[in-house]
Amino acid sequence: MAAMTIAKLAKMKADGEKIASLTAYDASFAKLFAQQGVDFMLVGDSLGNVVLGESSTLPVTVNDVAYHTRAVRNGAPDAFVMADMPFMSYATPQQACQEAAKLMRAGANMVKLEGGDWLLDTIRQLVERSVPVCAHLGLLPQSVNVLGGYKVQGKEASAAENTLRQALALQEAGAQLLVLECVPSSLAKRITEALDIPTIGIGAGPDCDGQILVMHDMLGMNSDYLPKFVKDFLAEANDLAGAVDLYVKQVKEGSFPGPEHSFKG
Ligand SMILES: Nc1nc(=O)c2c([nH]1)NC[C@@H]1CN(c3ccc(C(=O)N[C@@H](CCC(=O)O)C(=O)O)cc3)CN21
Ligand SMILES: CC(C)C(=O)C(=O)O
Ligand SMILES: [Mg+2]
């Protein structure tokens, strides 16, 4: 298959074709996901939870993400690979540029950073230096100690307006994708309609331009906690390839996520 690009993801939004994405951490799964038509992969700092067994993403380092990014790249040479910038690796624009370079050298096509207004200058500097950026709003797992838990964000009208405003500012600063995590479906829909860049939802309802899940969650391997947005696709399939195929199919046809995987309000 021809290599996926940011331009093709943008065209998918324009054409109304849903984007199906999964996290990936190693070469073998990256190869399977590419074969099953996953549009892009994220080397998430969720590797802290699902690979390292930590209870949050905070202990994850840039070297950890770079190591797994290299593995994913080796397994899927033509895939579009996004890498998470871990906690406190982008505290200043200069630090962000230096640390992003390590992820790009490891094979990433784009980096993802959690946050809004405080990141605008950082995003401008990354983009000016040829590092494509995905922004991330809503529930920010790296801020769990401030948020006091993994809770739905943007429920109050003022918080929803603030999130929409920040989404527009992130796009203006040069972000080319936006992940929306754990926000009411109605807010994700408004943001998706307001933005030119694709939105990728996780717990953000069916109206985002695409969806992402942690691969272990969609294979029924998350036993510690079960967020509402998770669906076990392996339970309805015969094997790993079938589970990934079903996920891609249900995202593309718009049957996943359903109301039972989404937050109202
Ligand atoms: N395996 C795994 N999957 C993930 O999606 C994930 C990680 N790890 N690690 C980093 C963060 C943590 N995430 C989480 C964790 C828990 C909830 C959760 O339980 N949310 C409640 C919301 C309750 C409410 O506010 O109403 C839920 O019921 O879904 C959500 C996201 C998402 N990320
Ligand atoms: C859940 C996704 C969006 C993520 O950031 C991760 O896997 O780390
Ligand atoms: Mg992450």
TrEMBL record:
Domain of life of the organism encoding this protein: Bacteria
Residues engaged in binding 3-methyl-2-oxobutanoate: D45, S46, D84, K112
Enzyme Commission number(s) of this protein: 2.1.2.11
Function: Catalyzes the reversible reaction in which hydroxymethyl group from 5,10-methylenetetrahydrofolate is transferred onto alpha-ketoisovalerate to form ketopantoate.
The protein, known as: 3-methyl-2-oxobutanoate hydroxymethyltransferase
Reactions performed catalytically: (6R)-5,10-methylene-5,6,7,8-tetrahydrofolate + 3-methyl-2-oxobutanoate + H2O = 2-dehydropantoate + (6S)-5,6,7,8-tetrahydrofolate
Subcellular location: Cytoplasm
UniProt GO cellular component terms: cytoplasm
Subunit structure, as described in the record: Homodecamer; pentamer of dimers.
Keywords of the record: Cytoplasm, Magnesium, Metal-binding, Methyltransferase, Pantothenate biosynthesis, Transferase
Listed cofactors: Mg(2+)
Cofactor notes: Binds 1 Mg(2+) ion per subunit.
SUPFAM superfamilies referenced in this protein's UniProt entry, alphabetically: Phosphoenolpyruvate/pyruvate domain (SSF51621)
Gene that produces this protein: panB
